[in-house]
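[Meeting: bench + compute handoff]

Bench side (C.D.) handed over the final construct sequence. Compute side (W.E.) agreed to return the predicted structure before the next meeting so the bench team could plan truncations. Sequence as handed over:
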Amino acid sequence: MKVGEFLKKKRQVNGLTTRSLGEKAEVSFAYVSQLERGVCNPTLDTLDRLLKALDVGWIEFLTATGYVKPSKSRARLKP
């Protein structure tokens, strides 16, 4: 799954509009729309704010977008 697809899916699951997600993450709704359509890519700082606004952890994001493979044992992922 691409970054934009992931953000859009999570936004919709959380019942948020692009405007409300933008407000929570302190970015414009137009930027959220561009991200979801794959027009641009977020910085790590912006992505962190978006994930927090969506109540999504980095492991979930990285796994869903294919950047890391799901682990059979989460023991190594303890904070």
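W.E. noted at the follow-up: The mean pLDDT is 91. C.D. will use this when planning the next construct.
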